[in-house]
Design goal:
2 domains, 74% helix
């Protein structure tokens, strides 16, 4: 039995390493005639270095990394059931029920549109002839999902502390329950985004299917971070407040109300800003709705995003596994 497990482990590592090698080769061979050659060389060097480090990290920490994904897959049906119950329970007892899940985001979009679109003439900040209401909504909707998933996922173990103390319950599913529950609200807002796009004269096309891909990106990014934050917050409760502050900073550091093209005169600042993986998601929604750009056309951004997600997920898996034995004692 042990030999079978070890053989399977070696096969999986070999396959992943080959995929990473293929990815690194693709990065090296990729050519963008319109880009600055020196800048492209820097991006290629950084990308290949990160990919190599990810491969080494996987080989050294394989056992700790794969435990978490396996548990999630084995409990996928339980996750969906509990996520639905969590979504309903959150608004149980209120007269308007789940409607409250949609009111606050709608009010927020309305206020931002009034301030930036009317008072500050935000139509100019969209960087094109795209109506500012559509530009703003394309940025706000994925942000709402990411921020809600991260906030609620961080507090998952604290909220379900009574389940953490049960030996037979797989507590690894708790953070993902919160992220899936946030996805239910997000589905409504994606429909709203489509309606606004049509009203603005942008009709459904093949590029819109990418919203599924970019939603998955936001899902993975939030979940990858949550496994670290939900583990640490059990021991350091101040982390919840810190996450709130960081989200307030991040909402302005991400080009949601403004266009990153406005920083075209500061290439170093643009490169620094693009280290924020949320930019990839927000830009992706705009590419899908009105930009008519495929995700693979943003080659380096896509590679960078998924490597960052893999690293964050690996860190989360290791932190979670190391701290898990102490959760019940602290809670």
């Amino acid at each position: 039995m042990l030999e079978v497990v070890l053989k399977k482990k070696k096969i999986i590592i070999a396959v992943v390493e080959l995929l990473l090698a293929a990815l690194a080769t693709g990065v090296i061979l990729h050519v963008n005639p319109a880009a600055d050659a020196h800048y492209e060389l820097i991006k290629k060097t950084i990308s290949v270095t990160v990919i190599v480090c990810a491969g080494i990290f996987l080989a050294l920490k394989y056992d700790k990394i794969v435990t978490l994904p396996v548990e999630i897959w084995q409990n996928r049906r339980l996750i969906l059931k509990l996520a639905g119950n969590d979504f309903k329970r959150r608004y149980a007892g209120s007269y308007m029920g789940v409607i409250w899940a949609f009111i606050q985001p709608l009010v927020t979009i309305g206020l931002y549109y009034f301030v930036f679109g009317t008072i500050m003439k935000g139509t100019r900040t969209s960087g094109s002839d795209v109506p500012f209401v559509l530009f703003l909504t394309c940025g706000m909707i994925p942000w709402f999902f990411f921020s809600e998933a991260l906030s609620t996922g961080t507090s998952a173990l604290l909220e379900y502390s009574y389940l953490v103390k049960k030996v037979v319950f797989k507590i690894s599913v708790l953070p993902i329950i919160k992220v899936v529950a946030a996805l239910m609200t997000h589905a409504f807002f994606v429909v709203l985004l489509m309606i606004i796009a049509v009203l603005c004269g942008y009709y459904p096309n093949i590029y819109w299917i990418q919203m599924v891909y970019y939603t998955f990106c936001a899902f993975v990014l939030a979940l990858a971070i949550c496994y670290t934050t939900c583990s640490v917050i059990v021991f350091i409760r101040d982390l919840g407040q810190l996450i709130g502050v960081m989200l307030q900073i991040l909402v302005w550091a991400t080009p949601i109300m403004w266009n990153i093209d406005q920083l075209a005169g500061h290439p170093k600042l643009v490169s620094l800003m693009k280290l924020n993986p949320c930019i990839y998601i927000v830009t992706g929604y705009r590419d899908a709705i009105y930009g008519r750009i495929w995700f693979f056309e943003r080659f380096f951004s896509t590679v960078y995003f998924w490597v960052i997600c893999a690293i964050l997920f690996g860190i989360g898996a290791i932190v979670y596994k190391r701290l898990k034995p102490h959760f019940a004692d602290v809670l």
